[in-house]
Amino acid sequence: xxxxxxxxxxxxxxxxxxxxxxxxxxxxxxxxxxxxxxxxxxxxxxxxxxxxxxxxxxxxxxxxxxxxxxxxxxxxxxxxxxxxxxxxxxxxxxxxxxxxxxxxxxxxxxxxxxxxxxxxxxxxxxxxxxxxxxxxxxxxxxxxxxxxxxxxxxxxxxxxxxxxxxxxxxxxxxxxxxxxxxxxxxxxxxxxxxxxxxxxxxxxxxxxxxxxxxxxxxxxxxxxxxxxxxxxxxxxxxxxxxxxxxxxxxxxxxxxxxxxxxxxxxxxxxxxxxxxxxxxxxxxxxxxxxxxxxxxxxxxxxxxxxxxxxxxxxxxxxxxxxxxxxxxxxxxxxxxxxxxxxxxxxxxxxxxxxxxxxxxxxxxxxxxxxxxxxxxxxxxxxxxxxxxxxxxxxxxxxxxxxxxxxxxxxxxxxxxxxxxxxxxxxxxxxxxxxxxxxxxxxxxxxxxxxxxxxxxxxxxxxxx
Length: 464
Ligand code: AMP
Fold this sequence. Notes:
Bound molecules: adenosine monophosphate
CATH class of the largest domain: Alpha Beta
Mean pLDDT: 90
């Protein structure tokens, strides 16, 4: 008999059904955070884990909470608190994928910005696992629509972000309503003071685990360019023309800078959208859908707005302004170069920002490599255009529209090929479908004249 490799999932006390599910998901070996966190977590220990998005941290806590779960008991047994709705949605998806090994495990998402009524109805049908944002989870506890007497696992995901957003009191109130004998798992990218306070109050002899963030940083090529403030925004356009990344997040330190940059890029014919903290949820959803479905080349965001965002395969990150917090820099650039791919981080810095650049060098333990602006020649005469465009269809889940209905209308009814259609997102009231940019207007008018699920629909192309 050969002994299992230390990073094989089979080295863990997991059920055969779970092991075969992991294999089907293509999880052949544990990621470093999983290898560090799962052995103590599966022993029932409280855990403080330092991990970034993209490290496989969701599966690390999901496997632990699923191991604690009794599917035959119809009560909420796990609660995962997340800073944002996007993160809560991603966590829910990952838990559902991992829970496939067991029958009928119900996972419910409870976030703000979504009508309470639907959530109340869902909760009445019973849930094993709740994933939500602290404020909305508190609302449900106060209304009595959520009970935590049967809870055995509490997870605080991206705890540092939740503290940044002022959720300490809500987290504390929620934790006080959980049975004291539960297991608590805390995940955080950084360790601000509040984390120690949280763990001292709500955790029992937690084990700390940590994986080096430098691993992923090594796969990311970082280039620095010195600019004056008047050159800064135009230089972003030059970087895009030179490197032609398929999708980019450009980070600015302020909302005003985001607005200015989007205006400059749009004037250059580059498809760019801004993500501010103050956008309405609906607008925010729309921006994220358009970026993720490849119909927008550049997402311009502040750090606050980009929290909890997990967009796979970003070709580049551009730091338009240097952040004064070096940990934020590491977090920003960690969004490119995921899952073994190489990443590109392009950084602009003025002389005034060199102090912050020094702090970043110190944290990363390496010097910056500077490149001349003169080297930024456009790589091609063609403008940088995203491959897809997004159609907005009025009507969503409320009208019982499903992605298959939209795909059917486009392929079976109108004769487009599967390849011409991209991602389809069905929200409560609207549906977004990405189609090849060149045919977008034609598809919109044909859909307007036709039907989806036997009903006529209103469709328009979303332009910048
Ligand atoms: P996370 O850090 O939880 O956002 O996970 C990042 C991505 O890695 C997700 O798409 C997971 O599905 C994936 N993932 C997590 N664990 C593994 C693993 N052991 N092997 C391969 N992929 C994984």
